[in-house]
What we know:
Blueprint: E1 7-9, H1 27-34, E2 37-44, E3 48-61, E4 66-72, H2 79-83, E5 87-92, E6 97-102, E7 110-113, E8 119-123, E9 135-137, E10 154-159, E11 167-177, E12 180-183, E13 195-198, E14 204-211, E15 218-222, H3 225-232, E16 238-242, H4 245-250, E17 258-262, E18 295-298
Parallel strand pairs: 1-9
Antiparallel strand pairs: 2-3, 2-5, 3-4, 4-8, 5-6, 7-8, 10-11, 10-13, 11-12, 12-15, 13-14, 14-15, 16-17, 17-18
Amino acid sequence: MGNAQPKLISDEGEDEGYPGYGRKISLNTVNKLAHSVCKLTVKRNKEKVINSGTGFFMMLNLEEKKLNCLITNYHVISQTVVDAKQILLIQIEKDNKEIEIKLDNSKRFIKYLERPTDITIIEIIDSDKILKDVNFLMYDLNYLSGYEQYAESDIIILQHPLGQETQIGIGKILNIKYFEFEHSIETDSCSSGSPVILIGNSKVVGIHKQMNKRNNNGIGTFIGEIFSEIKKRKITYHTEIKVDKKFNEENNFNIKNDIILYNENNNINNNNYHDFKILKRIFPSELRLISSEAIKIRSKL
């Protein structure tokens, strides 16, 4: 992580737990939070713009290490972009400063959580010369007690919609389903990757990733899924195998779907897939990775 110490943001004076209704947030806190968010532009050879969005800086405690990191959506910075070692421009509104880094996972820790969370984690290292210019957010540990507690919580989202200057939206967390939630804050293109912050303790509870076209609500992923997904995902490859009648009968499945078996070394043999352990029966509508030696159902119903 280096020797530089990041500046952390957290309103420690506030009560932990359910943030409640109508909490106030000070202008001073908003100004600090604004220095935790950045506009992201991915370029090829410093010329052609490949993608753009919003990102935020957060201190992340993983089992392997403690990281100063930049977090955004996977659809903003994908593994393909990193493998090609594209250029990432990070624009911090403070002093309108723009910092350029090369996306190279041989020099920094980069983690991809493509599905279902849509998150990319990029380590910020001392040579990036960012630490002194930004404030690092902290995440809300209350997620360990379950996500339902966040229903109707007051939140703010700092974003760069359409690549514009930092904008702040105030609203609430609405519908919660598994690791995802809807929120009431207006967003736009390039808002992807914005932090969803609790009013009350100024900690990150989620990351905005898209808009629900049916009702124009925003959709986010709870930040706690970073930890559960990293623990589960020690695999990088997959092989697709058709589910046949014998497999359905042996494992009590009454569906006509594809099945994906995950394996760390991608050495699955189509003739021995019955040997893989099934940890539990899952429904066709679920799209979840259960473990590195389990199954994942893709519904075609």
